[in-house]
């Protein structure tokens, strides 16, 4: 698992620094065959992704995407734990990226 995490981190770094690569998508799919991760590996990578970027500013793209990834992985394997994460992700998107000012959270 640690090698998958390192490869995904490098992919995000590559897109942030040079604008190339697949970025955050590497947290969700195999580097060799392109198939999406599933089961315990998918869940472990979702948590690792969130833990990697949670320390960044709230509006940081990798941080926001990592919260979404965690929510999606929890929805697939532990739906009862996914709702608060998905709600936090929705609130974050509404707060910073809503095009409708009336729906912006304060």
Structure keywords:
0% strand; 64% helix; 4 helices; 106 residues; globular; mainly alpha
- What share of residues are in beta strands? under 5%
**So what's the overall shape?**
globular
Residue windows where pLDDT falls under 50 for at least 5 positions = none
Q: Overall pLDDT, averaged?
A: 90
Task: Tell me briefly what this model is.
The protein is mainly alpha-helical and 106 residues long. It has 4 helices and no strands.
Summarize the topology.
Layout: H1 2-18, H2 39-53, H3 61-77, H4 79-97
Helix pairs in contact: 1-2, 2-3, 3-4
How does this model look, in words?
The structure is a single chain. By secondary structure, the chain is mainly α. It is 64% helix and 0% strand. The chain is globular.
């Amino acid at each position: 698992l640690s090698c998958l995490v390192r490869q995904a981190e490098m992919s995000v770094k590559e897109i942030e620094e040079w604008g190339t690569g697949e970025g955050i998508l590497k947290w969700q799919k195999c580097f060799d065959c392109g198939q999406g991760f599933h089961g315990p590996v998918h869940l472990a990578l979702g948590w690792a992704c969130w833990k990697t970027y949670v320390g960044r500013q709230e509006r940081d793209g990798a941080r926001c995407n990592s919260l979404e990834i965690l929510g999606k992985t929890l929805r697939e394997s532990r739906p009862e734990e996914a709702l608060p994460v998905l709600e936090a992700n929705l609130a974050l998107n509404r707060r910073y990226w809503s095009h409708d000012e009336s729906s912006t959270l304060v």
